[in-house]
Amino acid sequence: MERVEDLSFEAAAILSPLRHTRRRFYVAVAALLGIMAFAVYAYVQQFTRGLGETGMNRPIYWGMYIGNFVFFVSISLAGTLISAILRVVKAEWRRPITRCAELITVLSLIFAVVNIIVDMGRPDRLLYIAQHFRIQSPIVWDVISINSYLAASLIYLYLPMIPDLALLRDRPGRWRSLYRILSLGYEGTEKQHLWLERLTALIAILIIPIGISVHTVTAYLFATTLQPVWHSTIYGPFFVVGALYTGTAALIIIIAILRTSLRLRHVLKDVHFNNLGLVLMAEGLMVAYFLICIYLVEITGQEPHVLRVVLSEIQGPFALPFWGMVVLGILFPPFFLAFRKTRTVLGCVFASVLVVIAMWIERFLIVVPTLMHPRLPWPEGVYSPTWVEWSITAGCLAAFALLYMIFTKVFPVVSLWEIQEGMETAIPDVTERYKSYMPEKLGEEPV
Fold first, then answer.
1. With a threshold of 0.70, does the pTM exceed it?
2. Domains in the chain, ordered, with CATH?
3. How far apart are CA 431 and CA 256, in angstroms?
4. Contacting residues for 135 by C-beta, under 8 A, at least 6 apart
């Protein structure tokens, strides 16, 4: 087993957060705990007085919480895209950012579930899913797919951490007992390394269809109803593409924060932001295409119930957030990132912030306008989130940030062994792959 001193790159900055804590860390923790405390107070008010404390009503029985649920689920695809897909295609530039992405997946899935529990009003009814299980229900499909995705994501996050945990176990410092337990006796032997590579590769392949299933099943949860706009076959691929777009943007923002706050400029380099910016640009173009397809069909179809919902977004009460989302969050970022001069670290972060805000608005607009204009002969509703919903939403974001910060204080946020492996094997591996698919030179024996 290699020691930190045996690594062929400078790992001091990566391990520094595990040994030293700056004052601003405690300031940030105190601020986040304050936001979370107020969110807990808001939830207690909702729990004791009922969902009447929210803006939800009849017929708008879903609101900000379900929008948050879809939003957090969409962020979770970042880990699958950046880590699993890039690992499968052997993109070497992925190595410093894989763990950052995998952690986003796990935490976002946790808070997606939290929003569902909060939305229920009575969390004890969560047990009804087990007591009154019906495989015909898309809600049951969603529960199964999200739990499967969370379990697979935890395994996928943990497996590549084992060599790093063994490395930390054998050096002085805090948390050695925890590292000893979690490293599972890993010594870095050839057999152990081979099995670890095989298991990681297997989970990387399996987690891709599982991740896609989560987003399509969430889309089915909407599409299998007869609500106007929701009842559409295009929702499945649209949710997947939108999730890729949102998750990549969230990853860019987080690694930019880590790069600055943990002084990891020599690890999280400009090339990572450039490549992620190109990925974000391509995803933005796909989201724009799907959005055009959706609204083109809905407008030209002239179905009265659907048209009422669409017009409420295009020229009605939701026109301002809708056009802001379309112009600033979907059309502008791909155009902005198309130029190399603007695809800098700061430029990618700027575009990503616009994307994250716009895609949260897009999730909100998926849920609320449709319920305001029901197909059944009910009066139209009016919905406005209350301070309770805003507070709990802010508390979820604060808790997400706090857990991410705590993780960086206990575990390396950059995978040491993957970088070391890349430095040892990447050049020979890339050279071998290059020779395998390029024509032979004149006079050279065929491979």
1. yes
2. 20-423 (1.20.1630.10)
3. 31
4. none
